[in-house]
UniProtKB/TrEMBL annotation:
Top-level division of the source organism's lineage: Eukaryota
Keyword set includes Methyltransferase: yes
Protein name according to UniProt: Leucine carboxyl methyltransferase
Keyword terms, alphabetized: Methyltransferase, Transferase
GO biological process: methylation
InterPro entries named among the record's database cross-references: Ppm1/Ppm2/Tcmp, SAM-dependent_MTases_sf, SAM_mthyl_Trfase_ML2640-like
GO molecular function: methyltransferase activity
Gene3D superfamilies: Vaccinia Virus protein VP39
Family: Belongs to the UPF0677 family.
Length: 343
């Protein structure tokens, strides 16, 4: 939800970030009856945490001029496509400085680029990519850099089952998806709750090999966990450094950001670039939205929310100009290997 809350501010008489946005249209409708019924079950049976997977897919579908995810419309569902469509439409009509979903667009592109960089950084050999809290992620079907990688999607059983059912229903009933195949060398779906102690064991049972080079992708997941759960997940991943070259890609909220939804968010870190070295990672790079590697041509206006925060010291909790909380989202790439760890 942070991705929408932070980027829905409407500023009258300001200029939109992207002057080249194509004609806005509501994509992917109508669904087939079977797919529509599956999405209706999501609306009635899933809690807000699980439904956030569909919200993320809808955001990617509506930002399709920069994110090329052919499955996003299918996996999002009509409810969330319409909701974000109306927000974007309203923001554009009001010339908002921050168009709804821009954080999601930048976040998706950042993770895409860093996954490719991480895979390319390994000196050959088999590579594993683990998507924790994968939800309705379609990377195994769209990222060419994964063609030699074994991909593992970890999430709740009902989320993974629903995702498989939607994809199967689309394959059976529409010409568009009849030839749907993964680009990844292999794709394994691992039903596990990462808040439980057995998720890593289940990952290994599904074919994960600790001795193989691994990219861990924690996109939009850590802040939904309790502090103890989040730290345990990070400790498990850090422990893998002793076996092989490891890259962790994650986004972190600062303390002010979790106040946007006290009922949804818990874990935060104001200094994740200090936290991760303390766990054993030897090379950590932090980016904020709008930094050179977290920009993607979408944040030109120096007065937008994100650029205004970037100019302030990270230690500030309250903006000195308007008294608003300094809500930050950090993108972090952390690397480690058996020969380069910090005790």
């Amino acid at each position: 939800m942070l991705l929408h809350n932070l980027s829905m501010s409407v500023h009258e008489n300001s200029q939109p970030e992207d002057q080249t946005w194509p004609e806005l249209e509501l994509p992917g409708l109508p669904y087939t009856d079977t797919v529509g019924k599956l999405h209706a079950a999501i609306e009635t049976d899933w809690d807000s945490l699980r439904r956030s997977a569909c919200q993320t897919a809808a955001g990617r579908a509506l930002w399709k001029h920069v994110i090329h995810d052919p499955l996003a419309e299918l996996l999002a569902g009509e409810t969330y496509l319409r909701s974000i469509y109306e927000k974007i439409k309203k923001d554009r009509l009001n010339n908002a400085r921050e168009i709804s979903g821009v954080i999601l667009a930048v976040r998706t592109l950042w993770f895409d680029s860093k996954i490719e960089d991480a895979i390319n950084s390994f000196d050959g050999g088999a590579t594993q990519v683990v998507l924790l809290g994968a939800g309705m992620d379609g990377r195994a079907y769209r990222l060419s850099c994964l063609k030699e990688s074994n991909v593992f999607e970890v999430d709740f059983l009902e989320v993974l089952q629903m995702k498989s059912n939607i994809l199967q229903a689309a394959t059976d009933s529409t010409n568009e998806f009849q030839n749907l195949k993964t680009i990844a060398k292999s794709l394994s779906r691992v039903a596990a709750d990462i808040r439980d102690n057995d998720w890593f064991e289940k990952l290994q049972t599904s074919g994960f090999v600790p001795e193989k080079n691994t990219v861990w992708v924690l996109e939009g997941i850590l802040y939904y966990l309790s502090h103890s759960n989040a730290m345990e997940v990070l400790h498990v991943i850090a422990a893998n450094i002793t076996h092989t070259s490891t890259v962790l890609l994650a986004d972190f909220m600062n303390k002010q950001s979790i106040t946007l939804s006290s009922s949804m968010f818990d874990f935060y870190s104001d200094w994740p670039d200090h936290l991760l070295p303390s766990l054993g990672f030897s090379d950590v790079k932090l980016s904020q939205i709008g930094d050179p590697d977290a920009h993607f041509g979408l944040l030109h206006d120096p007065q937008n929310l994100f650029n205004k925060l970037r100019s302030l010291p990270r230690s500030l909790q309250i903006h000195p100009d308007d008294g608003t909380p300094c809500c930050r989202l950090y993108f972090v790439k952390a690397c480690g290997s058996p020969n380069h760890t910090i005790a």
